[in-house]
Amino acid sequence: MTVHTSRNHPAEGDGGAELLSATARDLPPGRHQFHKERLMAQIHDMRQTERTTPPAPERRRRFPRPAVALPLTVAGLAAAVVAGVTLTGHDGNGVQDAGPALTTTVGAATTKGVTRLLDQISLAATETSASRPTVRPGQYIYIESKSADSYVRTVDGTSSLAGHPLHTRQVWKSPDGTKGWLIDPAVNKSPEGETLSLPDEQGNTPKPSLNGPSYDYLTKLTTDPDKLLAKIYKETKGQGNSPDQEAFTTIGDLLGESYPPAGLYPALFKAAAKIPGVVVVDDATDAVGRHGVAVARLDEASGQREEWIFDSKSHVFLGERSVQVRRNSGDDGLITPGTVVYTTAILERTVVDGIRQTPAATS
pLDDT class for 94, splitting at 50, 70, 90? Predict the structure, then answer.
């Protein structure tokens, strides 16, 4: 789907990319990667079912079966995901099928102090990125996070608001983006996770882009904020609910699950300061309960506000969340103001010497 972090998935070939670009634009900010991995895995399973003559071998599923009967077509599945139909169930995964939805108090937003705050964040980003380990050939970028979400769950024609509880996500990526590993109980059936390495199952090796960047790709991007923002607008033209919102989301996704080089990291915040509609929320909480100040923007079409959360003193990036601040009739009014549609917290972002190696194993 319009996925801005690690969006190249082994099931993306054979028309998948076209489907993603056509369906993902209405997804809430921050949900792109989560939905893409699950959607593309099920598309792959469906195609395997259609192409295999019984008796078919037992197939691994990357996520549980849908809680409702979905038509066995790619378009039908994609429509279900965009509409918010749950793609979860009890199929051996480590994430509970359905729990209570996440809620919060909608914080007040203001345009006052946006530029000053982003200047402070940019300065902190310069210091943070300068102290990060250098990525060498053969090493892997390791990112560990905690995430949770709320969604519309439909069973036997009845819809209700539910949530997936907080769970850990670990991802490893080589600098060139061709090798990787993912452990996420919301996506993988196996607790050991599975490969993200390329080429994919159709033999394709997608080229890195803003919608699926590798570290090597990011090192080649301009660090001039005006030129960087112009590139973002150009490459995301026609995506999302508006050009400004898509630009904001693109930068936000780069903050979450990538490893921006030293010069690029502060430039991202300077570019964000130039996007119309950016506001400050004085108090916001990430997925593990850390309070901070948020740089945010409201998506007028969905009524959801994407919030990037930073430590109030150090201005270090903590995580992000998407909060419903205006009622949206498209989901039958179930996702009411105050619903936390998606939340994540970055716990670790570093470089390790081997795939599936963790910082603790090297200390």
Answer: low
